[in-house]
Write a structure and sequence with these properties.
single chain; alpha+beta; OB fold (Dihydrolipoamide Acetyltransferase, E2P); 2 domains; eight-stranded mixed beta sheet; five-stranded mixed β-barrel; 11 helices
Length: 436
């Protein structure tokens, strides 16, 4: 039975083992001695092949290329001649899959391959430990998030990705054929999160794909991405939502630091900074003044540009020594109709969360009162027929609630200092990329 290489370190010397994995390197020391590094995805180990143990099967290694997949049986041996202090003395081997020679990209990164070329050969790119680590961290970010949410009585939901009307802005939707009519791919689960709250849940979350028909080629946008969305009931102010998010992020960052400190230091030369609570809060009016002091133009009653977000990130790091800042009090003119307004009707009870100069979250306290919600929708939309089902969620009572949506890929991109969000997206989709 196959054993994971990572788990062999716990076994005693001379234990009989069976491993499978890719050949990373082969060192030929003559007819009677050869060394291989085998990688099964959990770790790597040296496999030492001696003719007196392996017999004539050792000759097969002369024809086996790097990246082939082997099944190896042998004896575990402690030795100072191996980097890990452990090797397998091979007594039997089987070629499970032979690899062609001449890879289209250099997975060792000794020679630089462009991002586009690496994405064309993504399955090979992932054999690089640095690239694989990105998605291990991504996976555990979601695992830790679920742990936190379940402990706080949130229910995980899976909402439909086919909608009869656009969930956000109609200009950013993908239209698809749906039998004899048109449907749209969901831009977010926003409406359905709120439906669940209206249905009586204390809180819900969803982790799933969303689609944005944005003809954008920036380093932080893709047309399909994984979104993590949260909605919680019985909030009293938007501050309740921000407190929930910052405490959750502190929890996940602490967990990731515990799991990956060694690998991040070895492969990226960095450590995860666990954020101190509370995060700084800066209103949009204050932020615009700060950004202007950096020589960046800001239009009144508008959102910050990406350059503005970067400038605000620098300011917060210098003044508060924080990587995070909540940008609050957005003007009504740039927010959706379902965000609750403050007493000053021109300001919303909403926020963005900026991490290392990049926006990773949009959140708000929602308007849960039916008559007010209808009035706000009428100000933003020419026709309410398209959202009639949504408005019905609030017709027969709905708790005060709020929530946020976050891109885990953006979080990981900022955390690891990656140049492009496509690095943290397993199979990126943008206006020109639809394969592999």
């Amino acid at each position: 039975m196959r054993q994971r290489i990572k788990e062999l370190q716990g076994l005693k010397s001379e234990a009989q083992v069976c491993i499978c994995g890719f050949i990373k390197t082969v060192r030929n020391k003559g007819k009677n001695l050869k060394f291989m590094i085998i990688d099964d995805g959990s770790s790597q180990i040296q496999a030492t092949c001696l003719r007196n143990l392996l017999g004539e099967k050792i000759d097969a290694l002369d024809k086996i290329s790097v990246n082939s997949v082997l099944k190896i049986s042998g004896t575990l041996n402690r030795t100072d001649l191996s980097k890990s202090g452990t090797e397998v003395l091979v007594t039997d081997l089987e070629v499970l899959s032979s690899a062609h020679t001449g890879l289209p990209i250099d997975i060792s990164e000794e020679l630089e391959s462009s991002l586009e070329k690496r994405l064309n050969w993504r399955h090979l790119d992932l054999r690089n430990p640095k690239k694989k680590l990105i998605f291990r961290i991504f996976s555990d970010f979601l695992k830790l998030s679920r742990e936190y949410f379940y402990a706080r009585h949130l229910t995980e939901i899976s909402s439909s990705k086919l909608m009869a009307a656009a969930s956000e802005s109609g200009a950013q939707v993908f239209q698809v054929n749906y039998f004899e009519r048109k449907a749209f791919l969901a831009q977010s689960p926003q409406f359905y999160k709120q439906m669940a709250i209206a249905g009586g849940f204390e809180g819900v979350f969803e982790i799933g794909p969303v689609f944005r028909a944005e003809p954008s080629f920036t380093s932080r946008h893709t047309t399909e991405f994984t979104s993590l969305d949260v909605e919680i009931a019985y909030v009293e102010t938007v501050e309740d939502v921000m407190c929930f998010e910052e405490q959750w992020l502190a929890f996940t960052f602490s967990g990731l630091k515990e799991l990956y400190s060694k690998q991040l230091e070895e492969l990226y030369g960095i450590q995860i900074n666990i954020p101190e609570l509370p995060f700084p809060r800066i209103s949009m009016t204050q932020a615009q003044g700060i950004v202007k002091s950096y020589g960046i133009e800001c239009l009144e009653n508008s959102d910050l540009s990406s350059d503005g977000e970067k400038a605000l990130g620098r300011y917060v790091k210098e003044v508060f020594n924080s990587d995070f800042v909540f940008l609050t009090d957005f003007p009504w003119s740039v927010r959706p109709f379902y965000h609750m307004r403050s007493e000053n009707k021109q300001i919303t009870k909403s926020f963005d969360l900026i991490y290392c100069g990049t926006e990773i979250t949009t959140g708000a306290q929602r308007e849960h009162r039916y008559d007010i919600l209808c009035s706000q929708a009428s100000e933003k939309l020419p026709d309410l027929k398209g959202i009639e089902d949504y408005l019905n969620f609030f017709k027969y009572g709905c708790p005060p609630h709020g929530g946020f949506g976050l891109s885990p890929a953006r979080v990981i991109t900022c955390m690891l200092g990656l140049d492009n969000i496509r690095e943290a997206t397993l199979l990126p989709r943008d206006p020109k990329r639809l394969t592999p």
